[in-house]
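Researcher: Batch entry, complex prediction.
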Amino acid sequence: MNRLASTSALNLARSLHDAGINDRAVLEAVAHTPREQFLDAALGHKAYENTALPIGQGQTISQPYMVARMTEILLQSKPNKVLEVGTGSGYQAAILAQLVPQLCTVERIKSLQIQARQRLKRLAIHNVAFKYGDGWQGWQSKGPYDAIMVTAAASSIPTALTEQLADGGVLVIPVGETSQQLVKVTRIGTRYVSEAIETVRFVPLINGELA
Ligand code: SAH
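Model: Structure tokens for the complex:
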């Protein structure tokens, strides 16, 4: 990436390191990604705070710590092809796209999807395929995936997602309603091994109808 790191983005990366993020590549991506471009101008002054912020339509850009943590977990398996469910602002997609060869991302709110696509284009990030659709069903025609990241909380683990994992693939997903756990599911042949990572708080993953 030839983008310059701003002082604010560098400081955010440093604070994530202090908060326990150790993957250098993830911290580099945070330092080189202008988070203010993923927010309305009125919220730009808060862009480098380690908090989730509203992006319209009742949705949020995730907390930078959570973005970094989920990315770090996902990169452990060195994935080539990754699926993100819940494009939202496109910030998580921009971080991931700098770290993996191929990213596919699905969003069920059309206006968010259009804005996210424009933002990544402006940043000259070209290895991302966007889909407007119900990510509860994954994106079957592009699969199987070495890794899948869901950035909204599912009431239960969608079987379409585990089915779209390649052998050895990893799904990182917040699960639960009032209380949510970040869960990592690894596919080993026809078996799935689940591991709870930490307590999290995400907007809900909608099952079914499009916005
Ligand atoms: N990764 C985003 C986080 C956005 S919040 C970011 O970096 O900004 C979660 C997003 O998931 C919302 O935009 C919401 O519309 C979307 N979402 C919820 N249910 C979905 C579904 N079934 N399919 C696709 N997207 C979904």
